[in-house]
Amino acid sequence: MFILGNLIGAIAKVLDIVLNLYMWIIIIRAIISWVNPDPYNPIIQFLYQVTEPVLSPIRRIIPTYTTGIDFSPIIVFLLIIFLQNFLVSTLTQMAVRLH
What we know:
This protein is mainly alpha-helical. It has one domain (2-98). It is 79% helix and 0% strand.
């Protein structure tokens, strides 16, 4: 069973790293949105391609025209924190119990 515990522990660690990386990408996207970035810049295109599939459904639920502020990065940020505290912690505890 320790092999399964190691596998679940490794999945939890990789998931935690991916969620942290995506959180930083969301932060960078939000900061870049304060200026007028060049839409043809490959880095800007990458940021939009990676974040838009997650941000656009939230924008449909909470439109920006009512408040004038885009709350979607904040909501995604909170969802990432929830996933880190719930899912990653649960997987880590499962891995420890299987050792």
